[in-house]
Design a protein that fits this description.
Two copies of one chain form a homodimer. The first copy, chain A, is α/β, with parallel strands linked by helices. Chain A has two domains: 129 residues, NAD(P)-binding Rossmann-like Domain (Rossmann fold), CATH 3.40.50; 193 residues, Dihydrodipicolinate Reductase, domain 2 (2-Layer Sandwich). In chain A, 34% of the residues lie in helices and 26% in strands. In chain A, strands 7, 8, 9, 10, 11, 12, 13, 14, 15 and 16 form a ten-stranded mixed beta sheet that branches. A six-stranded parallel beta sheet of chain A has the order 3-2-1-4-5-6, with helices on both faces. The mean pLDDT of chain A is 97. Chains A and B meet through helix 1, strand 7, strand 10, strand 11 and strand 12 of A and helix 1, strand 7, strand 10, strand 11 and strand 12 of B.
Chain lengths: 361, 361
Amino acid sequence: MPQNHAIRFGVIGCADIARKVSRAISLAPNAVIAAVGSRSLDKAKLFAEANGFPDDAKLYGSYEAVLDDPDIDAVYVPLPTSLHVRWAVVAAQKKKHVLLEKPVALNALEFDEIIEACESNGVQFMDGTMWVHHPRTSVIKDFLSDAHRFGELKSIHTCFTFGADADFLQNNIRVKPDLDALGSLGDAGWYCVRAILLAANYKLPKTVLASRDPVLNEAGVIMAAGASLYWEDGKVATFYCSFFSNLTMDITAIGTKGTLHVHDFIIPYQEKEASFYTSSESKFDELVTKWDSQPSKHTVNTDLPQEALMVTEFSRLVGEIKFNNSKPEKKWPTISRKTQTILDAVKASIDRGFEPVHIQE
Amino acid sequence: MPQNHAIRFGVIGCADIARKVSRAISLAPNAVIAAVGSRSLDKAKLFAEANGFPDDAKLYGSYEAVLDDPDIDAVYVPLPTSLHVRWAVVAAQKKKHVLLEKPVALNALEFDEIIEACESNGVQFMDGTMWVHHPRTSVIKDFLSDAHRFGELKSIHTCFTFGADADFLQNNIRVKPDLDALGSLGDAGWYCVRAILLAANYKLPKTVLASRDPVLNEAGVIMAAGASLYWEDGKVATFYCSFFSNLTMDITAIGTKGTLHVHDFIIPYQEKEASFYTSSESKFDELVTKWDSQPSKHTVNTDLPQEALMVTEFSRLVGEIKFNNSKPEKKWPTISRKTQTILDAVKASIDRGFEPVHIQE
């Protein structure tokens, strides 16, 4: 693509995750880093230097300045969740396309303000869930959609846990009620729920029930939680997320005819290849002393890391709008909202003393 | 060991599973198959022929005849669960040591009659859970007990599902309320619960809550179910069992410092070796684009299949009682009862409309 067709990104906020996404913007063939804004010009300068920004990238001492820059097509917003609605709405109003970190909002109603602003301003929305852009994910989805190899989904269990250190548990935005009030549920649970939705073909469950013993910190922010989800057709999902356990991220999906195991679904063990395991129509031998066959390992290679593929896809959609008069792709805000809806239901179930919460599509 | 020190087994009932355990008795170095009893002498004969019984094995047309045979030290009881209490109690009264299929009873109170009969007659009790006798299981237990590699257990998920065919769903004892009334919960859930107990160091949870959508057949027998279990210290366990899904059997145990994955914990993929995966202190790289290290695969070899090791251990304990005046080992009935107690709680939670059920140690 001609360089002048590349989508010009501004980054607002210098969170840790912005380092990785800035690199991804540099790696994406259809995007360029054009500006960074922080609450101080010094921080923006330091961030740009530390992350190898191009010399002509603009440095701003405020978020507004990035949004007011007519050379910027799109913004990446890594700010704490409590600031999402404010800055995503302003960005949309300034006709900037919005790539927003997850969780997208503190609740779905708040997220609706973001969607409304994006829709009425004709800008693309996408959340920062990177793993769904890895080519492995579509191969996994093919397996889960295969009537012969997988059949009908009956149960799925997902988890994402990591061991946060003392500094994180004291100071990270994810433990602060005024910043990322959903804590581990919003941070880690988000991915678990997205994987469940992907396997359930993005159909929302009818009922969500939080596990009975979530761990809250002194400020009431969720440090560890789980839930079970129930669909009309009898499908069941469970997930577990925590800041207090060894790093683990699994999808175990069981269908009538097949089984899927993924052990590194959010961040693959390696950048350029990622694997998963499937089995179909598994059987024991006649005397039930061993299996007829073992699961198959599937490996998918990628030249670009998944976060760069996310930026590439987002930039492609933005380019379609900018250069070809296309409409924004609604798939992305739709699945963001479904993910948020389930998080809301888990949170509501906790708040109501572990009552089941019913969801309407 | 001298052949006259080998423990002489009688098998009562010719269930499918008795074929595998008869082979295991033949393989065990300290046991011999000495008799089989069925409701008809013809069936006993056919079973003995089909399963390569020694020529001097006695064939009986009733269960009582096996129990009355003074040459028999121990009985293997593969009868439907509803018959367990009757026949295990009579066996103990006739001073036969009892190797009993799982689930051990329809409920823990019924099982207490079995324990009482075994204790008052000085005979060994063991249930037919084979996988705990695989040498892999003790290596797994070592990992789970390791404060440095695994730390403290925080969450565990187990499952056992298989796709039962139309004949099974119509005719198998496990779908019949008068035979194996606990259905999939007693058959498949038993193993899930045992794995959870092993990881929890056999400490019972304080609360058990059944998943909201169990599948029952027309007779009200459980075909698919799940539950979550909660301990005082905040540990959480979930499990899922089903007759309607592809064959799958997992343990995923997450501790503060380590993670365990097992994908074939009940029946290993192969008879003579079995694997599992561990990771400890797992971390991402600095930019969170990949992992520092991948899980380690551990493989444990065994000359004898796990069911023969079960028979060997049971026979060793019987030998200690018979030849060395030892007392029966209480560990085995104790963990059987704990497993049954949790199954009872899951069943009670289902029967009470998914209320949490509190357990007292």
